[in-house]
Write a structure and sequence with these properties.
By secondary structure, this protein is of the alpha+beta class. It has one domain. Strands 4-3-2-1-7 form a 5-stranded antiparallel beta sheet. It has a two-stranded antiparallel sheet with strand order 5-6.
Length: about 180
Amino acid sequence: MFSSSSSSSKSSSRSRKTNNRMAPREWCIEDDDTIRECRIHLYRRSCGPLVAYHWALTFEWQGGYKATYEALDEDSTLTDRWKEGDVEKGSDDGEIYEWYRYDTYTAYNCSPQNVNSKARSLRIGNMCYNSMSVNYHEWAKALAKRFGVTLPPGIAGVIRMIPVPHYFSDEVTGDQDMQYN
């Protein structure tokens, strides 16, 4: 059964190497290729006075190891990053925010190395940020899709008013045709 109370020695040695928050565009080398059961947690937090939410995915493996993946708008570029551990409280432009678990998807078998590789290879990462179509909501949807997880409709938290360019629409939205949430 899935338990988060124990920790393997491989996980402990990796913790010493990657136990700090990673700056955008910096990726730790994830050498844990052991495939095991994993839960995927979808978290959201407010984006200040805007109507949108920021989304992050936390992967939690048997043995208690967790890694959180998210994308940010950095200098008008959608920049992806990951850190070891769960989501954290923080501040954005002086506003304190808290994360809320939105949903959990269970019983996926994968390795931390596999998740890291798939997250780094998303085409939407490092594109010019656009709040309507190339944003952290779409990045989270694209990563979840790589693991067979379809996030609920309307997850973007914003009304899409422009079509997603066709050259990445299948990865971003999961459909060839534009859907309006």
